[in-house]
Amino acid sequence: MITAEKIDWSLRWKQEGLEAGREEGREEGRKEGRREGLQEGKARLLEQQLVRRFGPLPLAVRERLAGASDGELDSWALNVLDAANLEAVFRG
């Protein structure tokens, strides 16, 4: 026979589990937001460096920067230091 106390405990555990799940979801959302923000910041900074070095950027280059992975942005940011032209930034 199920007692009122057992039902109460069951409901409490369920509620605690839901709260823990919500908090975990919020934390994961914050982490993802920080990652996305950092990546967008890298792309924006690299775009500014490219404009300063090579002048106005073609739309295709701006789109490429916006869709780039974190690793690509890091690689291109290093390449911009030695590249003779815009195309050289995106090689290798």
From TrEMBL:
Residues 35-87 form the DUF4351 domain. Residues 19-41 are annotated as: Disordered. InterPro entries: DUF4351. Pfam families: DUF4351 (PF14261). It comes from the Bacteria. This is DUF4351 domain-containing protein. It comes from Pigmentiphaga humi.
